[in-house]
Design goal:
heterotrimer; A mainly alpha (284); B mainly alpha (279); C alpha+beta (421); A: 284 residues; mainly alpha; MetI-like fold; two-stranded antiparallel sheet; 1% strand; B: 279 residues; 14 helices; 0% strand
Chain lengths: 284, 279, 421
């Protein structure tokens, strides 16, 4: 029986080993070198990491990533949840769901090009209106403070529809009797939400928190296509910095180090969240 | 939740609904704007930035973009990558999931969690090492070089395993008493029930593969191999494109997704609902 | 038993897919296919397409597959491809990247299949010698000079007329330039865009030009040497473009120019073909002498053969054949791409000198290239990272987020950190 079990797992296991695990290990290996096979790799242990920690630009991308994540996570979860609640309460129907969901099917290039054009000072209607209302004088994507939130907003627009569908499924699974009982008690919609819905939603919400965080910290495509990390380095998230160090500065050892640090950040965060909210049991 | 008539149409609900519809309209507005601008001639695009509808409708943007760039080739490549990912992932995940759910073996649960935890490896950091791994396997710069790593994601195996666990044990016990092998149980008994979950996996992996950006960007450089998201990126970086072209390119690129959504909306949403219920 | 069978079948399927993939990567029979990956984007990309198409038309035994790589990642992609043994047969390397890229290139006079220069009759005297020497490292020749690219100021002649300016006498001094900008602004045009398509590297180059015109040097004795009065004044001049309302940060100068709204645009030799369809009369004035000296930024492109794996070695000679063709036809590169070709026969070709390109822009560019106005320094192995260290601060200063003084101090700090590694 045991042999059969391993046999069944083998095909997937090979894929996993070759394409997920091996690259991770190899990446760590690269991060310990000055990596340039054409000239000769030089082992330097953790020197690359130490240099990184001494580089202001690295810390900049570190904090920029957190700032981005702090905008994106509440954004996606709150928007998704509100939309799901609206659907669940039958305030709106299938068309609403479709409209909200559709952006999720688009690839990052389309989303970034579209929103980049919306913000374009010569062509974009978004910017024109803001200008007419007197709110903005510089294009927001070129604004030191607002560039990052704008990319975050585009990300929310892109991904919230998916969360909405997941939340709605969860809401639909809650037992109707609880709501009946609450109504008999005379509870209004707001109180019902906080005393019944929210506690039931907790595991779903927390799982959404974990997944959205991971996704947010990996963000790359929309940043490079909308602002290229700018203005200056105001929106240069870690994934973009890692890419730059590798592909523009040609320092793949250091880039691998950034990548590994990113991996550790995400992994640690997820472990903390899982342990803290005891979601591990949910998975089993 | 069944509501009585007066509840359903109370003024609070009506005003809330209206507000929500306004929000929905604003939400989808960028796509309307995109369509409008695609058919606007370049000379008008800059001067009439605040208007929605073009004064002179034109097809020149679409025509120029189609002539300059091989959209059909890009879509073909994206399709091949997606189909490849689906095929491989579904096949290997079915077997792996069955093993994790139904066949006891030493270290099984540990391996499962190990595989699962790779969901938290950011896809992007593996790109450069993957370059060399695929090189040694002889698939660098090819489409299998893209869809094989994609099919290594643990999502399929995870969803299927959760579902298999939920299938009542007695069904399987009865089959075993009849002398069925694991393979027969998997194919003859489990498979038919699993279709909705397989559907969910297919939807998830299709979206991921069709829209994959980073790894495709790094590994698919030959013009014959370029996929749709990278093709778009190349258009953007070419500095040989005017505004009208950018709009047209975006519209053309989203057409397949739109058409599929139009016809398969219900299935897609149901698929996500299913995968969502296992979170 | 059945399980084993199915699993074997499954492995076979995977194997088939694999094989299909590997076969895609292998070279098909028929004409020899060589891969030429470029980093051209503007009008010049089309020009190279034309030349390659002509080569493919004339040569049935060798066909070129031309792809456009991304500008920013080009060098890294090339390096990786060489490391992986999957490099293109022909590539393009910029002059300031020669010092860092040459380990990834095939020495043309000492290749695995012989002395290609001798075999194909390519001599140093056929080219502008000082550029040829940039690719001569350690006695080996790593590339053939293709062209000189430079930045110049294009201007909208009709806008000039409407603003009361003489379109045949564009501004060449600071005073004339300021007056022209103000006149254009009054007439309702956007006066000037210093940074081509708007990405941050163009703002950096504009500042380089101002700084060099003030007589400054960027790196001296391996330390940053620009945080001084000259650097500051140069940056303040750049920032004043925004302050005087001559343009808005975050805009695309080429798009503004092509739509007829922009009076003057800083852009390069490559932009010529992109202007083929504009509906107004335009000219290229060269570079104004804003400050004490007259300099403009530019670079050189070299045709190179990246290092080939053992399997790819048979492709080296066909690649050289293609390079020779492209080089001999670089007058077309000049006419349609707008760059200054560096092969002497191309520079002197009557077809080039009678072309519209020559009359409108190329003649002035050529004069700048050989008149001591063209500058491309420093040629440092870490120039990519140095440029990247400076760029964000220039951009921020232009946007008004930090002061020019702060920008230079921070840039100096980061550049010295790079240099000290």
């Amino acid at each position: 029986m045991g042999a059969e079990g391993i046999l069944f797992v083998l095909p997937y296991g090979i894929l996993w080993l070759l394409f997920l695990f091996l690259p991770l290990v190899f990446g760590f290996y690269i991060s310990l070198h000055k990596w340039n096979p054409l000239v000769g790799n030089v082992f330097q242990g953790f020197q690359g990491y130490i240099e990184l920690f001494r580089t202001p630009r690295f810390w900049n991308s570190f904090w920029v990533t957190w700032r981005f994540v702090l905008f994106v996570i509440p954004g996606i979860i709150i928007v998704g949840l509100l939309a799901a609640l609206a659907l669940h309460a039958k305030l709106v129907g299938g068309l609403f769901e479709s409209l909200f969901f559709f952006p999720y099917l688009l690839n990052v290039s389309i989303v970034s090009i579209l929103w980049g054009l919306l913000h374009d000072p010569d062509v974009g209607i978004f910017f024109q209106y803001l200008k007419q209302l007197g709110i903005a004088t510089t294009p927001l994507l070129n604004h030191e403070f607002w560039a990052l939130p704008m990319v975050a907003f585009t990300t929310i627009w892109w991904l919230a529809g998916y969360r909405m569908v997941v939340f709605r499924a969860a809401l639909a699974s809650f037992p109707a009797e609880l709501y009946e009982a609450a109504k008999l008690d005379g509870a209004g919609p707001i109180r019902t939400f906080f005393t019944i819905t929210l506690p039931l939603l907790k595991p779903t919400l927390l799982f959404a928190l974990v997944l959205t965080t991971v996704g947010g910290m990996r963000a790359f495509g929309q940043v490079i296509l909308m602002t290229a990390g700018g203005p200056g380095t105001a929106s240069e998230v870690l994934a973009l910095y890692m890419y730059r160090v590798g592909f523009e500065f040609l320092d793949f050892g250091r880039a691998a180090a950034v990548g590994f640090i990113l991996f550790l950040m995400i992994f640690t965060l997820v472990m903390i969240l899982l342990k803290f909210f005891r979601l591990g049991s949910e998975l089993k | 939740m069944a509501l009585r008539f007066t509840q359903k149409y109370s003024s609070a609900r009506i005003s809330l609904s209206l507000a929500l519809w306004v929000v929905a309209f604003l939400w989808i507005f960028p796509l309307f704007w995109l369509v409008g601008k695609t058919f606007t001639p370049n000379s008008e695009i800059i001067r009439e930035a605040t208007s929605l509808l073009p004064r002179d409708i034109t097809l020149e943007n679409i025509h120029t973009v189609l002539k300059k760039w091989p959209f059909l080739l890009w879509m073909l490549n994206s399709t091949l990558v997606t189909v490849g990912s689906i095929t491989v992932m579904v096949l290997v995940s079915l077997f792996a999931a069955y093993s994790f759910a139904r066949i006891p073996w030493k270290g099984r649960d540990f391996v499962f969690v190990l595989f699962l935890s790779s969901m938290f490896i950011p896809w992007e950091i593996n790109a450069v090492p993957l370059y060399f791994v695929t090189k040694y396997l002889g698939i660098l710069g090819t489409r299998p070089g893209v869809f094989l790593p994609i099919s290594a994601m643990p999502v399929g195996m995870f969803l299927l395993r959760q579902f298999f666990i939920s299938i009542p044990q007695d069904i399987e016990d009865a089959a075993r008493i009849d002398g069925c092998s694991s393979l027969t149980i998997l194919v003859r008994i489990f498979l038919p029930m699993t279709i909705p979950v397989i559907g969910a996996v297919v939807i998830w992996i299709s979206l991921f593969a069709w829209n994959e950006f980073f790894w495709s960007m790094i590994s698919l450089q030959r013009s014959a191999m370029v996929t749709l998201p990278i093709g778009l990126k190349n258009i953007m970086g070419s500095q040989n494109i005017d505004y009208g072209g950018m709009f047209a390119a975006s519209l053309l690129a989203l057409l397949p997704s739109f058409l599929i959504f139009l016809f398969l909306r219900r299935q897609i949403i149901r698929g996500i609902t299913v995968s969502g219920s296992f979170r | 038993m059945k399980s084993v069978l199915v699993l074997v079948l499954g492995f076979c399927m995977l194997g088939a897919l694999w094989g299909a993939g590997a076969k895609e990567a292998a070279k098909p029979a028929g004409p020899v296919k060589i891969w030429f990956n470029t980093l051209f984007h503007g009008g010049d990309a089309k020009a190279m397409e034309m030349i390659v198409q002509e080569f493919n038309r004339r040569n049935q035994d060798v066909q070129i597959d031309l792809t456009q790589g991304s500008w920013t990642e080009y060098a890294a992609q090339l390096n990786n491809a060489v490391m992986a043994g999957e490099a293109p047969q022909i590539g393009i390397v910029l002059n300031f990247l020669m010092p860092s890229m040459h380990p990834a290139l095939t020495p043309l006079n000492d290749s695995p299949v012989g002395d290609l220069l001798k075999e194909f009759g390519i001599k140093r005297e056929d080219y502008v010698e000082y550029v040829w020497d940039i690719a001569s490292i350690g006695g080996k020749q790593y590339g053939i000079p293709l062209d000189n690219t430079l930045l110049g100021v294009y201007y909208n002649k009709e806008a000039f007329r409407k603003a009361g300016l003489n379109p045949d006498k564009p501004p060449m001094t600071m005073d004339e330039f300021v007056a022209a900008c103000e006149a254009l602004k009054k007439a309702g045009f956007i006066p000037f865009h210093p940074a081509a398509f708007g990405q941050s590297r163009w703002y950096r180059r504009a500042w380089y030009i101002f700084y060099w015109q003030k007589g400054g040097e960027l790196i001296v004795n391996n330390r940053a040497a620009f945080n001084n009065q000259k650097g500051l004044e140069a940056l303040e001049a750049l920032v004043s473009i925004r302050e005087r309302g001559w343009n808005t940060p975050g805009t695309n100068g080429a798009a503004q120019f092509e739509s007829g709204n922009l009076g003057m645009m800083m852009n390069g030799t490559w932009h010529y073909l992109s202007l083929a369809n504009v509906k107004f009369e335009w000219g290229m004035m060269g570079i104004p002498k804003w400050f004490e000296k007259q300099y403009t930024w530019g670079s050189n492109h070299f045709l190179v053969i990246p290092r080939q794996s053992k399997k790819q070695e048979p492709l080296i000679k066909p690649a050289m054949k293609a390079i020779k063709f492209i080089s001999e036809n670089s007058h077309l590169w000049g006419i349609y791409g707008g760059h200054v070709p560096l092969r002497k026969s191309a520079m002197q070709s009557p077809e080039l000198q009678q072309s519209e390109t020559w009359k409108k822009a190329l003649k002035t560019f050529t004069e700048m290239a050989f008149g001591g106005i063209y500058k491309s320094k420093p040629l440092h192995p870490r120039i990519g990272e140095i440029n990247a260290a400076i760029e964000p601060y220039i951009e921020r200063a232009y946007n008004g987020t930090i002061s020019p003084k702060e920008a230079l101090a921070l840039a100096e700090r980061d550049v010295n950190a790079v240099l000290s590694k």
